[in-house]
Amino acid sequence: MPELPEVEGAGAHLRRWTAGRRIVSFHTDDPKLLVLDRGDGSSIGAPVGRVWRRAKYLILEAGDEAWVLHFRMTGELLRGQVPGRARWRLDDGTSLVFADARRLGELWRMPVREVPAFFDAKKLGPEPWPEPRDGAWWAGCLGDARGPLKPVMLDQGRVAGIGNIAASEICWRARLSPLRPANGLSAQEWTRLADAAFAFLDEAVAACSAEEITYINQGGANPFDVYQRDGEPCRRCGEAIVRVVQAGRSTYFCGRCL
DNA sequence: CTATTTGTTATCGT
DNA sequence: TACGATAACAAATA
């Protein structure tokens, strides 16, 4: 379920794994993974350069090439002799693996100079992290939308990187109903949203970037306050968390303290 | 077989 | 025209 924090964490791991290394080879057996290959091959044999994130995309630069990864639902970046859809070998003998159980993720290779145009075409909104954003900023991004707040938060053209989990969690932290029309929030409500969003993202990025812990699912306890907790008591007021569907997506919230 | 899960994109309707 | 809501898609699990 990689959203902004998981992708940022994958970048942190990737930076550690590739610092000072060169890419020796790339291989994939999966014809559907590499959806666009406009590279010149110059990343092979080149030292790894910048590793950065835009929205839910992760970009790895080497030579004059950029590898752009999107994990969609189940994609993840692993290291070692594990199965996956694609593999990069490094000059220290280790491998980077694009693992992806449901095979919805996508990979692009292109000249570094074409990356800005690639993202321009995506029409992504601005980043809510790591730069702290205030209520006026959020109001400017979301405040002209007539639809309910939570689906508007998922619009990558308004603010980039918020996914279905973060949207519910941020609304709960801000004590804002996900059902409220976005254009009906007051200035102080926008400030609550801004503070909740930054706090959630900052904590989640830190957890996802840690060396040891992997943060989400995979057997561990649900780390969230409301996500997939319908029927459980609200951690603030004890009221049962409810689940509704908005724009075809599950939304979780507390109907009493919001 | 059905419902559910994800982000993105295509399409329908107002 | 613009925007919002919905469906489709990929694949697997309960």
The largest sheet is: 5 strands, mixed
Count of DSSP helices?
6
Shape: elongated
| Oligomerization category of the chains in this entry | single chain
Lateral strand order in the biggest sheet: 2-9-5-4-3
Average pLDDT reading: 90
Written overview of the protein:
The chain is 27% helix and 24% strand. With 258 residues, it is of the alpha+beta class. A hairpin with a 2-residue loop joins strand 3 (48-54) and strand 4. Helix 1 runs parallel beside helix 6 (187-209), helix 3 crosses helix 6 (187-209) and helix 5 crosses helix 6. It is elongated and about 55 Å long. The model is unreliable at 214-218 (pLDDT under 50). The chain binds a DNA duplex (14 and 14 nucleotides) through loops.
Secondary structure topology:
Blueprint: H1 4-18, E1 23-28, E2 34-37, E3 48-54, E4 57-62, E5 65-70, E6 75-79, E7 86-90, E8 95-100, E9 106-111, H2 115-122, H3 135-142, H4 149-153, H5 164-174, H6 187-209, E10 241-246, E11 249-254
Parallel strand pairs: 2-9
Antiparallel strand pairs: 1-7, 3-4, 4-5, 5-9, 6-8, 7-8, 10-11
Helix pairs in contact: 1-6, 3-6, 5-6
The protein binds a DNA duplex (14 and 14 nucleotides) through loops.
Features:
258 residues, alpha+beta, five-stranded mixed sheet, four-stranded antiparallel sheet, 11 strands, 27% helix, DNA-binding
Can you describe this structure in just a few lines?
The chain is of the alpha+beta class. It contains six helices and eleven strands. The protein is 27% helix and 24% strand.
